[in-house]
Amino acid sequence: MINTEQQGRQDKVRIEQIRLLLNNLGSSVLPGILVVLLVAYALQHQADPLRLTLWCVVVIASKLVDSFDARRILARAIRPANLPQLRRRLVVLHAIDGAAWGSLMWVGLNPASPPSWILAIAVLSGVAGNSMSILSPVLPAFIAFITLELGMIALKSLQSDALALNALGLAAIMYLATLLMQARNSAQAAKGAIELRFENLELVDRLRQASAAALRAQQEAEQANIAKSKFLAAASHDLRQPIHAQGLFLEVLGKTKLDQNQQSLIGHIQSATNASAEMLHSLLDYSRVDAGVITPQLQAFALQPLLNKMERELAPLANTKGLFYRSRDTAEVVLSDPSLIELILRNLISNAIRYTQQGGILVGCRRRGDQLLLEIWDSGIGIDPQQQQEIFDEFHQLGNPERDRKKGLGLGLAIVRGLTQLLQHPLRVASRPGRGSVFRLALPRIAVTNPLPAETPPPVSISQPLPRAAVLLIEDDDIVRSSMVMLLQSWGCQCMAAESLEAALPLLAQQTPALLISDYRLREKKSGTDAIRAIRKAVGRDIPALLLTGDTAPARLREASDSGLPLLHKPVSPQQLYACLAELLADSQP
Q: Which residues make beta-bridge pairs with 377?
């Protein structure tokens, strides 16, 4: 029984090896024919025309026969009983193919024309190397091909009276030995990969039989990881760079003399840029939660100022859809992180507005012992009971099969779930399809006489130039570097820019900068923290520094966060950049 099973596994592996070789043949036909025609064209004045034409016909015919035979075999099932016959057939066909290629050395090349010999040997050597990746799954077929092809090169070269050609013949023999060893390794690797695949399939089959529930959980996890990886790749560092630069260029352009139509056009462009930036910041918020770089700063604060802020910012959005927005006043005080509660509220309320077409949104509080329930009610489309947990998954959206960007990315509730788990604030949802939903966030309720304010300071207005300080910028992206230089100069800074640390160090001889700005991820696997550390060492003091990053990979976020340097995430708004630079320059003043 054991021998039968082992034989069955070996037959499956041999069948897959043959199928792999046959599938490889299809991609080699057209390139092979083109190489034959190119060689014929190059040697038309160096070789006997009749022999050269005959060689072309034979090689092309061999390639076409191999391809046709491969398609015919693949079109039907390969049975274990047919394996010996198929392997012999492949050996014979590729021995003929190898002899056909190698016969190029015998088509009448002119011994007095070294370029023709060099071309022929170069082409045949290239064909030999390429054949290893195509034929090595069935090692005997490759051995037959390569032995005849390179053997004919060696034989013809060793028959020559020229010492250089004799050396080439010996080199062909050594090359043959090298390719045979490499082919053996490649064949073993292919066989191992095929065996591993079959072992995995058998393991999955056993797991399916043992536990259907475990298999379903595994598939869901794999699908979630695949979806997450695809989206993270789509919104990677390279996507953030041009959007960041676009926002800075628009800020500089907005300060120039423009007519009313041009100002209106810039406004539309800025709206589109802001929409893209909001999506990328949603991804960043999710990545920061996923990376575990958020540390809650718990403090006592009154809820009412935060509710007022949300109403000022989001009520106009509801009004544009014809919805009412109400928030009930409260004097309650809670213990939490006000900035994270604001992010949770913003996502919940924005989500409620997005999925409500008539009626409105109500935000209010209820006491429940030592807890306060912060509730967001809406009269929207509601949520089916089977989906009331799935809505917290990444990229899951209700009623958006067309992926309308106006409905966001499907990350808002995933961010909410991550933050509520981080803060250990329970979140519950109740909903009736077609009637609306309510999200209830439980917060620790406390009694404090002088709570800290929850409102954040108003956005900084770019009303005056920055101090005329020398700023050294290190940024490897040309367009981002140009936009940063133009913006800093428009703010009154003296800007020195470099694409790398090596290019930045010579600039220190001209002037010692008062401030350093560096992209976090530089070329050659260097980081902005390394660049800042090196420049500080070169000037002999800790110059104020700022990191910029467009990277959302959890590992990179943790590294940047651990640096202890101020960090802004691209795309950075001009107001945010201005405020940070103003603070750093103010702190550096004696």
A: 362, 438
Q: How far apart are the first and last CA of the chain?
A: 87
Residues 123, 105: Cα–Cα separation, whole Å: 11
Least confident of 27-41, 199-213, 465-479, 576-590: 199-213
Type of residue at 115? P
Of 80-84, 122-126, 571-575, 584-588, the range with the lowest mean pLDDT is 584-588
Q: Say whether the peptide bond before residue 401 is cis (omega within 30 degrees of 0).
A: no
DSSP state of 343: H
The residues, any chain, with a CB within 8 Å of residue 463's CB and separated by 6 or more, are none
pLDDT for position 375: 92
Residue 405 has a pLDDT of: 44
Strand-pair category, 360-368 with 324-327: parallel
Percent of the chain topping pLDDT 90: 2
Q: How far is CA 153 from the centre of its chain?
A: 46
Measured CA to CA, the distance from residue 470 to residue 493 in angstroms comes to 6
Instruction: Give residue 186's pLDDT band: very low, low, confident or very high (50, 70, 90).
Output: confident
- The structure tokens listed for 6 are 């082992």
Digit-coded pLDDT (tens) for 281-308: 555 555 555 555 566 778 888 888 889 8
Summarize the confidence of residues 58-79 as an average pLDDT.
84
Contact 246, 266 (CB under 8 A): no
Whole-angstrom distance, CA of residue 474 vs CA of residue 507: 11
**Secondary structure class of 451 (helix, strand, coil):** coil
The one-letter amino acid at 136: S
| C-alpha span between 586 and 544 (Å, rounded) | 10
Element (H, E) at 540: none
pLDDT above 50 (res 12): yes
Bridge partners, residue 443, by sequence = 372
User: Which range in 210-224, 267-281, 403-417 is most confidently predicted, on average pLDDT?
Assistant: 210-224
Structure tokens, 536:
């500080």
H helices present in 43-138, as ranges: 49-74, 83-102, 114-135
Q: How far apart are CA 307 and CA 342, in angstroms?
A: 9
Task: Say if CB 59 and CB 100 are below 8 A apart.
Answer: yes
Is residue 135 a contact partner of residue 21, using CB atoms and an 8 Å limit?
Answer: yes
Report the SS3 class of residue 472.
strand
Sheet with strand 567-569: strands edge to edge: 494-498, 470-474, 515-519, 545-549, 567-569
DSSP three-state, residue 430: strand
Strand partners, 496: 472
Higher pLDDT, 511 or 242: 511
Q: Are 351 and 412 in contact (CB under 8 A)?
A: yes
Verdict on whether the full-model pTM lies above 0.85: no
CA distance 74 to 24: 12
Q: Which residues of 502-518 are buried (b: 16+ CB within 10 A; e: fewer)?
A: eebeebeeeeebbbbbb
Please tell me the distance from the alpha carbon of residue 161 to that of residue 575, in angstroms, as a whole number. Answer: 80
